[in-house]
Structure to design on (265 residues):
Protein backbone atom coordinates (compact mmCIF):
# COMPACT_ATOMS: atom_id res chain seq x y z
CA UNK A 1 0.00 0.00 0.00
CA UNK A 2 1.27 3.47 -0.93
CA UNK A 3 0.10 6.46 1.13
CA UNK A 4 0.52 9.98 -0.23
CA UNK A 5 2.08 12.21 2.43
CA UNK A 6 2.19 15.34 0.28
CA UNK A 7 0.32 18.62 -0.11
CA UNK A 8 -0.25 20.27 -3.49
CA UNK A 9 1.01 23.58 -4.82
CA UNK A 10 -2.28 25.48 -4.91
CA UNK A 11 -2.56 29.10 -6.04
CA UNK A 12 -5.97 29.41 -4.37
CA UNK A 13 -4.65 28.52 -0.91
CA UNK A 14 -3.78 31.17 1.69
CA UNK A 15 0.01 31.33 1.29
CA UNK A 16 3.05 33.16 2.66
CA UNK A 17 4.67 33.72 -0.74
CA UNK A 18 3.24 34.82 -4.09
CA UNK A 19 2.20 31.97 -6.35
CA UNK A 20 0.82 31.93 -9.87
CA UNK A 21 -0.01 29.06 -12.18
CA UNK A 22 -0.52 29.95 -15.83
CA UNK A 23 -2.71 27.35 -17.47
CA UNK A 24 -2.94 26.97 -21.23
CA UNK A 25 -5.74 24.60 -22.20
CA UNK A 26 -6.01 22.49 -25.35
CA UNK A 27 -7.82 25.15 -27.38
CA UNK A 28 -5.32 27.83 -26.36
CA UNK A 29 -2.50 25.40 -27.05
CA UNK A 30 -2.78 25.95 -30.81
CA UNK A 31 -2.27 29.69 -30.39
CA UNK A 32 0.60 29.14 -27.97
CA UNK A 33 2.28 26.67 -30.33
CA UNK A 34 2.30 29.26 -33.11
CA UNK A 35 3.69 31.90 -30.79
CA UNK A 36 6.52 29.59 -29.66
CA UNK A 37 7.38 28.75 -33.27
CA UNK A 38 7.12 32.29 -34.63
CA UNK A 39 8.48 34.40 -31.77
CA UNK A 40 12.08 33.35 -32.32
CA UNK A 41 12.67 36.22 -34.76
CA UNK A 42 11.46 39.79 -35.20
CA UNK A 43 9.98 38.92 -38.60
CA UNK A 44 8.17 35.94 -37.11
CA UNK A 45 6.65 38.08 -34.36
CA UNK A 46 5.47 40.64 -36.91
CA UNK A 47 3.83 37.91 -39.01
CA UNK A 48 2.18 36.49 -35.87
CA UNK A 49 0.65 39.83 -34.91
CA UNK A 50 -0.53 40.29 -38.49
CA UNK A 51 -2.52 37.08 -38.12
CA UNK A 52 -0.33 34.65 -40.03
CA UNK A 53 -0.01 31.12 -38.63
CA UNK A 54 2.31 28.19 -39.26
CA UNK A 55 -0.36 25.72 -38.22
CA UNK A 56 -4.11 26.28 -37.81
CA UNK A 57 -6.73 24.70 -35.57
CA UNK A 58 -8.37 22.93 -38.51
CA UNK A 59 -5.09 21.13 -39.22
CA UNK A 60 -4.86 19.60 -35.72
CA UNK A 61 -6.89 16.56 -34.53
CA UNK A 62 -10.05 17.76 -32.74
CA UNK A 63 -8.71 21.32 -33.16
CA UNK A 64 -6.85 20.80 -29.88
CA UNK A 65 -3.12 20.89 -29.17
CA UNK A 66 -1.35 20.00 -25.90
CA UNK A 67 -2.11 21.64 -22.58
CA UNK A 68 0.67 23.47 -20.75
CA UNK A 69 1.02 24.81 -17.22
CA UNK A 70 3.71 27.18 -15.97
CA UNK A 71 4.21 27.43 -12.22
CA UNK A 72 5.67 30.56 -10.64
CA UNK A 73 6.27 29.68 -7.00
CA UNK A 74 8.91 29.48 -4.28
CA UNK A 75 10.56 26.10 -3.76
CA UNK A 76 9.04 26.13 -0.28
CA UNK A 77 5.49 25.83 -1.59
CA UNK A 78 3.77 22.48 -1.27
CA UNK A 79 5.54 19.53 0.34
CA UNK A 80 9.28 20.10 0.00
CA UNK A 81 12.70 19.11 1.33
CA UNK A 82 15.11 21.67 2.84
CA UNK A 83 18.85 21.11 2.90
CA UNK A 84 21.85 22.94 4.36
CA UNK A 85 22.20 25.75 1.78
CA UNK A 86 18.78 26.95 2.90
CA UNK A 87 20.02 27.17 6.49
CA UNK A 88 23.20 29.14 5.80
CA UNK A 89 26.33 29.40 3.67
CA UNK A 90 28.24 26.87 5.82
CA UNK A 91 27.35 23.63 7.58
CA UNK A 92 29.75 21.81 9.89
CA UNK A 93 32.41 24.35 8.92
CA UNK A 94 32.22 23.52 5.20
CA UNK A 95 30.32 25.14 2.33
CA UNK A 96 26.68 24.17 2.64
CA UNK A 97 25.25 21.65 0.22
CA UNK A 98 22.44 22.44 -2.17
CA UNK A 99 19.45 20.24 -2.75
CA UNK A 100 21.04 18.30 -5.62
CA UNK A 101 23.85 17.30 -3.24
CA UNK A 102 21.41 15.65 -0.84
CA UNK A 103 22.40 11.95 -0.72
CA UNK A 104 19.58 9.94 -2.27
CA UNK A 105 20.22 7.20 0.28
CA UNK A 106 18.81 9.57 2.90
CA UNK A 107 15.56 9.85 0.97
CA UNK A 108 14.53 6.18 0.97
CA UNK A 109 14.58 4.63 4.39
CA UNK A 110 12.60 3.18 7.27
CA UNK A 111 10.04 5.59 8.68
CA UNK A 112 8.62 6.18 12.12
CA UNK A 113 5.79 8.60 12.89
CA UNK A 114 5.58 10.24 16.30
CA UNK A 115 2.10 11.45 17.24
CA UNK A 116 1.84 14.91 18.79
CA UNK A 117 -1.68 15.62 17.56
CA UNK A 118 -2.70 16.17 21.18
CA UNK A 119 -0.51 19.27 21.37
CA UNK A 120 -2.06 22.62 20.52
CA UNK A 121 -0.65 25.96 19.43
CA UNK A 122 1.35 27.68 20.90
CA UNK A 123 2.91 24.58 22.45
CA UNK A 124 6.21 23.26 21.10
CA UNK A 125 7.68 19.77 20.93
CA UNK A 126 10.51 19.24 23.42
CA UNK A 127 13.21 16.60 23.70
CA UNK A 128 11.22 15.03 26.54
CA UNK A 129 8.18 14.86 24.27
CA UNK A 130 10.23 12.98 21.67
CA UNK A 131 11.61 10.42 24.12
CA UNK A 132 8.15 9.90 25.64
CA UNK A 133 6.57 9.38 22.20
CA UNK A 134 9.23 6.78 21.38
CA UNK A 135 8.64 5.05 24.71
CA UNK A 136 4.90 4.87 24.09
CA UNK A 137 5.34 3.02 20.80
CA UNK A 138 8.25 0.94 22.15
CA UNK A 139 10.57 2.02 19.33
CA UNK A 140 14.32 2.62 19.44
CA UNK A 141 15.64 4.94 16.76
CA UNK A 142 18.39 3.69 14.49
CA UNK A 143 20.65 5.74 12.20
CA UNK A 144 19.05 6.79 8.89
CA UNK A 145 15.47 6.38 10.07
CA UNK A 146 13.20 9.08 8.63
CA UNK A 147 11.27 10.55 11.56
CA UNK A 148 7.85 12.05 10.79
CA UNK A 149 6.32 14.49 13.27
CA UNK A 150 2.52 14.39 13.30
CA UNK A 151 0.57 17.41 14.54
CA UNK A 152 -2.41 17.24 12.12
CA UNK A 153 -1.74 20.83 11.06
CA UNK A 154 -2.29 19.74 7.45
CA UNK A 155 -6.04 19.72 8.15
CA UNK A 156 -5.87 23.55 8.08
CA UNK A 157 -4.06 23.79 4.73
CA UNK A 158 -5.42 26.65 2.64
CA UNK A 159 -6.55 28.65 5.68
CA UNK A 160 -4.82 31.47 7.53
CA UNK A 161 -4.28 29.37 10.68
CA UNK A 162 -2.13 26.95 8.66
CA UNK A 163 0.43 29.76 8.41
CA UNK A 164 0.10 31.18 11.88
CA UNK A 165 -1.05 28.66 14.49
CA UNK A 166 0.84 25.37 14.49
CA UNK A 167 2.99 23.35 16.86
CA UNK A 168 6.70 23.67 16.13
CA UNK A 169 9.80 21.73 17.13
CA UNK A 170 12.31 22.95 19.70
CA UNK A 171 16.00 23.06 18.84
CA UNK A 172 16.69 20.51 21.59
CA UNK A 173 14.19 18.04 20.16
CA UNK A 174 15.64 18.42 16.68
CA UNK A 175 19.19 18.06 17.92
CA UNK A 176 18.29 14.95 19.88
CA UNK A 177 17.00 13.27 16.72
CA UNK A 178 20.09 14.26 14.75
CA UNK A 179 22.33 12.89 17.50
CA UNK A 180 20.58 9.50 17.14
CA UNK A 181 21.82 9.33 13.53
CA UNK A 182 18.64 10.76 11.98
CA UNK A 183 19.40 12.59 8.72
CA UNK A 184 15.87 13.47 7.61
CA UNK A 185 13.09 14.83 9.82
CA UNK A 186 9.62 15.52 8.43
CA UNK A 187 6.71 17.52 9.85
CA UNK A 188 3.15 18.23 8.72
CA UNK A 189 3.31 21.96 9.51
CA UNK A 190 4.34 25.00 7.48
CA UNK A 191 7.81 24.82 9.00
CA UNK A 192 9.92 22.89 11.46
CA UNK A 193 10.32 25.87 13.79
CA UNK A 194 7.56 27.74 15.59
CA UNK A 195 5.34 30.08 13.52
CA UNK A 196 7.31 33.04 12.18
CA UNK A 197 5.02 35.58 13.87
CA UNK A 198 5.92 34.12 17.28
CA UNK A 199 9.61 33.95 16.45
CA UNK A 200 9.80 37.59 15.39
CA UNK A 201 7.61 38.80 18.26
CA UNK A 202 9.95 37.20 20.79
CA UNK A 203 13.04 38.42 18.93
CA UNK A 204 11.76 42.01 18.87
CA UNK A 205 11.12 41.82 22.60
CA UNK A 206 14.51 40.37 23.52
CA UNK A 207 16.86 40.90 20.52
CA UNK A 208 18.11 37.38 21.25
CA UNK A 209 19.48 36.00 17.98
CA UNK A 210 19.15 32.44 19.28
CA UNK A 211 15.39 32.75 18.91
CA UNK A 212 15.62 33.12 15.12
CA UNK A 213 14.68 29.83 13.47
CA UNK A 214 16.73 27.69 15.89
CA UNK A 215 15.94 24.36 14.17
CA UNK A 216 16.99 25.75 10.81
CA UNK A 217 20.10 27.38 12.28
CA UNK A 218 21.04 24.04 13.85
CA UNK A 219 21.70 22.85 10.30
CA UNK A 220 24.67 25.19 10.19
CA UNK A 221 26.27 23.13 12.96
CA UNK A 222 24.95 19.63 12.22
CA UNK A 223 24.16 18.57 8.68
CA UNK A 224 20.62 17.29 8.22
CA UNK A 225 17.59 17.72 5.97
CA UNK A 226 13.98 18.25 6.85
CA UNK A 227 10.67 17.86 5.05
CA UNK A 228 8.03 20.52 5.58
CA UNK A 229 4.30 20.52 4.77
CA UNK A 230 3.66 16.81 5.00
CA UNK A 231 0.08 15.52 5.05
CA UNK A 232 -1.98 12.45 5.92
CA UNK A 233 0.26 11.19 8.70
CA UNK A 234 -2.94 10.11 10.42
CA UNK A 235 -3.57 7.75 7.50
CA UNK A 236 -0.56 5.58 8.35
CA UNK A 237 -1.89 2.28 9.78
CA UNK A 238 1.11 1.84 12.07
CA UNK A 239 3.76 4.06 13.57
CA UNK A 240 6.76 2.18 12.18
CA UNK A 241 7.46 -0.74 9.89
CA UNK A 242 7.08 1.21 6.65
CA UNK A 243 9.34 2.92 4.13
CA UNK A 244 9.42 6.65 3.36
CA UNK A 245 10.36 7.97 -0.08
CA UNK A 246 11.12 11.70 -0.31
CA UNK A 247 13.29 12.31 -3.36
CA UNK A 248 13.46 16.07 -4.10
CA UNK A 249 13.04 17.44 -7.62
CA UNK A 250 16.40 18.32 -9.20
CA UNK A 251 16.66 22.11 -9.44
CA UNK A 252 20.04 23.73 -9.96
CA UNK A 253 21.57 25.85 -7.20
CA UNK A 254 18.73 25.92 -4.67
CA UNK A 255 18.48 25.07 -0.99
CA UNK A 256 15.13 23.28 -1.20
CA UNK A 257 12.91 21.52 -3.71
CA UNK A 258 9.42 20.11 -4.06
CA UNK A 259 8.92 16.42 -3.34
CA UNK A 260 6.09 13.92 -3.73
CA UNK A 261 6.60 12.20 -0.39
CA UNK A 262 5.00 8.78 0.06
CA UNK A 263 4.98 5.98 2.60
CA UNK A 264 5.12 2.37 1.44
CA UNK A 265 3.42 0.10 3.92
Amino acid sequence: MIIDLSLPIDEKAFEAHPIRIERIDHKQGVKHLNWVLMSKSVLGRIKYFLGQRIIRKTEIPDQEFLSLEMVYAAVHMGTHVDFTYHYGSKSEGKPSKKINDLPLEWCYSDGVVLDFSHKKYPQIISKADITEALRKVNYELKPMDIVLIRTDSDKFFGKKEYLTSYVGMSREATEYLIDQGIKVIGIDTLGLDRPFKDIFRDFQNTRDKNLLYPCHMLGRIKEYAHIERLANLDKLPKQFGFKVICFPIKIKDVGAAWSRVVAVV
